[in-house]
């Protein structure tokens, strides 16, 4: 059974994977690690990454080698921290979009007489 992903999910998942590609030994390993975090099947994400790389997308540039070792280490640490925070932010955005769609779908079903919110009946009966 194939699952269709909205374009914004695809773009964010690929961007996130490309940003972190240098942390993994291959696009497959990156997709295997990042896919579950963004609720995308790892094989689907691997294909998206492969296609993005073939189209010319490249991972973020590495820090300058002209810096002293202490500054280079701090720069690498800070870049990783920023990347982690951006990743967490992207995951939260994807989750909020998912829940917004689910809430919207639930409200449409209620309007059609499908799912009903019984919480107000429970509150009324308890009162």
Care to describe what's here?
This protein has 127 residues and is mostly helical. Helices cover 68% and strands 0% of the residues. The chain contains 5 helices and no strands. Helix 1 packs antiparallel against helix 4 (69-111) and helix 2 (27-34) crosses helix 3 (42-54). The chain is globular and about 65 Å long.
The main sheet comes to: none
Helix content: 55-70%
* Overall radius of gyration: 21 Å
Count of β-strands: 0
Shape: globular
State the secondary-structure class.
mainly alpha
- The residue ranges in which pLDDT falls below 50 over 5 or more consecutive positions are none
Strand residues, percent: under 5%
Mean pLDDT: 80
With helices defined by DSSP (H or I, 4 residues minimum), what is the helix count? 5
Query: What order do the SSEs take from the amino end to the carboxyl end, as H and E?
Result: HHHHH
State the separation between the terminal residues, measured CA to CA. 47 Å
């Amino acid at each position: 059974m194939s699952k269709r992903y909205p374009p914004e999910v695809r773009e964010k998942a690929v961007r996130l994977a490309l940003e972190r590609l240098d942390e993994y030994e291959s696009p497959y390993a990156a997709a295997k690690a990042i896919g579950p975090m963004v609720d995308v099947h790892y094989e689907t994400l691997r294909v998206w990454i492969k296609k993005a790389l073939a189209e010319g997308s490249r991972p973020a540039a590495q820090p300058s080698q002209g810096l002293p070792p202490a500054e280079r280490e701090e720069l690498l640490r800070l870049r990783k921290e920023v990347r982690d925070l951006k990743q967490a932010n992207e995951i939260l955005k994807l989750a909020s979009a998912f829940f917004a769609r689910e809430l919207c779908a639930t409200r449409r079903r209620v309007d059609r007489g499908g799912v009903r919110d019984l919480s107000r009946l429970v509150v009324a009966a308890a009162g």
